[in-house]
Amino acid sequence: MDIHYKKIDLNGHFERALKFRLDSFVCSFGSDKEFWQEAGADGSIYRDKMEQRKDDADWFYFHVWHAGRIVGQLEFRGFSEWEKLGYVQLFYLIPEYRGIGVFDQLHRFVEDTLINVGCSGAVLAASKTNLRALKAYERLGWYRMGPNPKHEMTDFYRLDFS
Question: Which residues form the signal peptide (predicted)?
């Protein structure tokens, strides 16, 4: 599938980015209850963070495009609290693009990008109840590191690049 990645255009596509982030949160935790506390009532906290980081070479915010439309979103960075490991905040695909092999392409893009900035692996936090995501991560070599002390519903997973 011919997938393209473009930096998120905050002026033209922020509402889509916020919608995707919200859907990902609901998929992970079953409700939007805590989402708006983190993102701001109108998404302004989320937008401000993206705006502050958009020109930083260690932060990556991409929309995933196919056939002229936005079908997904990636958010990740080339650093974490673990030495030489990047951190993935978000893998997201709209529902009709899930389960058809597109995720593997997104995953490869993130891995290649992190390798290019000097990372030897990556970490992410995944909801214990998002079984579909956990299955995909494990299939691609991610392994559980342990619980996330900042959020009891999530565990940390790690992938070492070979």
Answer: none
